[in-house]
Write a structure and sequence with these properties.
The protein has 447 residues and is an alpha/beta fold. Among the domains are: 250 residues, Alpha-Beta Complex (Amidase signature (AS) enzymes); 58 residues, no CATH class. It has 16 helices and 11 strands. An 11-stranded mixed β-sheet has the order 1-3-2-4-6-5-10-11-9-7-8, with helices on both faces. 56% of the residues are buried.
């Protein structure tokens, strides 16, 4: 359900930036916005199953607490009063975090993750915990696609993408190790943004692969994903992926766009993934509509091995992260996840270290492409969301960018032959997130 299908007078149809502004101006009550979101949850949750945990009474309690704060000292925080869904791999001290597995059912963290801390500091209402696949891997959860409940919403951030697309929340948190933000954003028809590796702290997040795990976000507007990442960004010395750096001006970039046309490299030749014919046709039309902007370009030599490099790193690290659980409860893991863990356990140390070295080589090898182009243009997924719930779809058009740690954004600009959303993915150079969002804003306007 897009926001256009919501009641025209419902605050739930507002984007997060507008909602926060109206709350700060006293034109919208936090309780009214929260109730509007909870009304959609009540209407559609039994069908979509986007939430791993949600307590409407506690959501209302948070809303009342925010209103008391506003009455005492005004609306404080850039997301003051805005409901947010949090993927159920991020610890929350006031709600359980089950990581999509029966082995952690009812698990109650004692402290907040860094993401939850920053959301609360910004004044957000943490409406609940959204469904994740089992340990954010491949085994699907129960969530269905809001545009067609017979289709997958993608994974692993399935609940977050579906909740935003259905209008249950204007913002949601996800994660991406392979394609877990960009692909569900494409399938559900919302904006998804995976910022540069190391921009957002993963403290208190259940890790799958520390070398390639990213925090990502979902919204129905480009400026909203920019706002959410600005709120979440900031150095945290407990996350070894991070280094001290200024927060990039993402909102300004998303709102301003560009003063001149960008150069976009259309990459549609991936050795490990083939777009559906209808997707190829869509991107050929985009290239034709933007002469002088889009040029076809090939990946440098050696990138055909990227999928294997990603698997060796991520599955070996997954085996390490889940070693104790696998040893104690091997039957408690799904067959697919258990196979991944055992594959990672069999991998030789030399092969894992060679994959890390190859990742560094590929990160350097992609840089000349970003010297020639402002961003890389690719499908966010091979096609529309597949029919059926037995798979979350292929992450193949996201794998490389997760491996390299480059920022990527999915824009809901096109649809496939069945009328389902089809995301347009833009990829930028590492640490140039603002430049990527400015280019994305230009592309949205142009198309």
């Amino acid at each position: 359900m897009s926001d256009q299908s919501l009641a025209t007078d419902s605050p739930a149809r507002l984007d997060a930036t507008t909602a926060a502004a109206r709350i700060a101006e006293g034109r919208l009550g936090v309780d009214r916005l929260t109730e509007a979101c909870l009304a959609i949850v009540a209407e559609r949750e039994s069908e979509l199953r986007a939430w791993a945990f949600i307590d409407p009474a506690y959501g209302r309690q948070q809303a009342r607490a925010r209103m008391d704060e506003a009455a005492a000292r005004g609306a404080c925080g850039r997301l003051f009063g805005v409901p947010v869904g949090v993927k159920d791999i991020f610890d929350t001290a006031d709600m359980p975090t089950a990581n999509g597995t029966v082995l952690h059912a009812g698990r109650q963290p004692a402290t907040d993750s860094a993401v939850a801390e920053r959301l609360r500091a910004a004044g957000a209402v943490l409406l609940g915990k959204t469904v994740t696949t089992e340990f954010a891997a491949f085994t699907p959860g129960p969530t269905r696609n809001p545009n067609d409940p017979n289709r997958t919403p993608g994974g692993s951030s399935s609940g977050s993408a579906a909740a935003v697309a259905a209008g249950m929340v204007p913002l949601a948190i996800g994660s991406q190790t392979n394609g877990s933000v960009i692909r569900p954003a494409s399938y559900c028809g919302v904006h998804g943004f995976k910022p540069s590796f190391g921009l957002i702290s993963r403290r208190g997040m259940t890790l799958q692969s520390p070398t390639v795990d990213h925090v990502g976000v979902f919204a129905r507007r480009l400026a909203d994903v920019a706002l959410l990442v600005e709120v979440l960004a900031g150095h945290d010395g407990t996350d070894p992926a991070m280094r001290p750096r200024a927060t990039p001006p993402l909102v300004a970039a998303a709102l301003a766009g560009r003063t001149s046309a960008p150069r976009l490299a259309l990459i549609d030749g991936f050795a490990w993934e083939t777009p559906e014919p209808s997707t190829l046709a869509v991107f050929a039309q985009i290239a034709q509509a933007l002469p002088g902007v889009v040029d076809r370009a090939a990946l440098p030599a050696g990138f055909e091995a990227a999928k294997d490099v990603h698997q060796r790193i991520s599955w070996a690290e997954l085996a390490h992260e889940l070693a104790d659980l696998h040893a104690a409860h091997p039957g408690g893991l799904s067959d697919g996840l258990r196979d991944m863990v055992e594959w990672g356990q069999r991998l030789e140390a030399g092969s894992y270290l060679a994959a890390l070295a190859e990742r560094r080589r590929l990160q350097a090898a992609i840089l000349p492409l970003f010297e020639r182009f402002d961003a890389i243009l690719t499908p966010a997924a091979a096609g529309e969301a597949p029919v059926g719930l037995g798979s979350t779809g292929s992450p193949g058009f996201c794998t490389l960018w997760s491996l390299l740690g480059t920022p990527a954004v999915s824009l809901p600009l096109r649809s496939g032959p069945s009328g389902m959303p089809l995301g347009v993915q833009l990829v930028g150079r590492h640490s140039e997130d603002a430049r990527l969002l400015a280019t994305a804003a230009w592309l949205e306007q142009a198309l």
